[in-house]
Amino acid sequence: MDLQAMRREYGLGSLHREQLETDPVKQFEKWMQQAIDSNLLSDPTAMTLATVDAQHMPSQRIVLLKGYDHTGFRFYTNKNSHKGQDINDNPQVALHFAWLPLERQISIIGSAVPLGDDENDRYFHSRPKESQVAALASQQSRPVESRDVLESHYQSLLKDYENTEVPRPQSWGGYSVHPQQFEFWQGGQHRLHDRYQYSKDRENWRITRLQP
Ligand SMILES: Cc1cc2nc3c(=O)[nH]c(=O)nc-3n(C[C@H](O)[C@H](O)[C@H](O)COP(=O)(O)O)c2cc1C
């Protein structure tokens, strides 16, 4: 397998300063809409969430973006999970969207703030009952002896809550990542990619072109 011989050109498009929205959230909205409309991505809302623990050790995993506005980018998880513990110790996180068929990536850096009970309850109960029970059955990131142990715990909870509402586990909830910096990247010919960084400057956003 000769990985060094594998290469392709990036030439789908280019990104010019005058095309950019002054507001990075609007720029994100534009690209997200294009990503959805392209039908080239199976999970356009999937993003890598990177965290750093109290010992400065990084880790990352994919989560789904469930909403965004100027206050933040929201996702849901188990707050006792590995990522939840990291965020508890260090709320600075990075989000990354890898939209490779579009030759685009977006990076966002910010601090994660837990969502309130009302918002957590609303989203939790909007999910299919099976997913609600699965959230109850899984102590995310902890070891489990076997798939059978997990399945039988899930099946017994499913029976328990057959005719009643599933209570949201206190550990289950969302975070909103308040953005401090964005980068929009568009692949360019000969590896001369277009990169624009938005960084927060008081109430405004400063836009800087970065070298590829
Ligand atoms: C496409 C995709 C979407 C996912 N969405 C979520 C999600 O929204 N929330 C979540 O907690 N885990 C999600 N996961 C699972 C996480 O990647 C991860 O395995 C899990 O959250 C445990 O991570 P941790 O042990 O680092 O905390 C998703 C995985 C994939 C591949």
How are the SSEs ordered, and which strands pair?
Blueprint lengths: L23 H15 L7 E7 L5 E7 L2 E3 L2 E7 L3 H8 L2 E8 L4 E11 L2 H10 L2 H9 L9 H14 L11 E15 L7 E8 L2 E7 L2
Antiparallel strand pairs: 1-2, 1-5, 3-4, 4-7, 5-6, 6-7, 7-8, 8-9
The chain binds flavin mononucleotide.
Flavin mononucleotide (FMN) binds next to strand 2, strand 4 and helix 2.
Structure description:
The protein is of the alpha+beta class and 212 residues long. It has one domain: Electron Transport, Fmn-binding Protein, Chain A (Pnp Oxidase, Chain A, Roll). The chain is built from five helices and nine strands, in the order αββββαββαααβββ. Strands 1, 2, 3, 4, 5, 6, 7, 8 and 9 form a nine-stranded antiparallel beta sheet that branches. The protein is globular. It starts with 23 loop residues before the first helix and ends with a strand. The mean pLDDT is 97. The structure holds flavin mononucleotide. One of its GO terms (molecular function) is FMN binding. Substrate binds at residues 7-10, 66, 123, 127, 131, 191-193. Keywords: Flavoprotein, FMN, Oxidoreductase, Pyridoxine biosynthesis.
Q: Stretches where pLDDT falls below 50 for ≥5 residues?
A: none
Distinct ligand kinds: flavin mononucleotide
The overall pLDDT, averaged over residues, is: 97
Number of helices: 5
* Main beta sheet: 9 strands, antiparallel
- CATH top level is Mainly Beta
Which term fits the overall shape?
globular
Radius of gyration: 20 Å
The tally of structural domains comes to 1
CATH fold-type name: Pnp Oxidase, Chain A
Helix-strand topology string: HEEEEHEEHHHEEE
Query: In the CATH hierarchy, what is the architecture at level 2?
Result: Roll
Superfamily (CATH H level) name: Electron Transport, Fmn-binding Protein, Chain A
Task: Report the count of strand segments.
Answer: 9
Percentage of residues in strands: 25-35%
- Cα end-to-end separation: 28 Å
Helix content: 25-40%
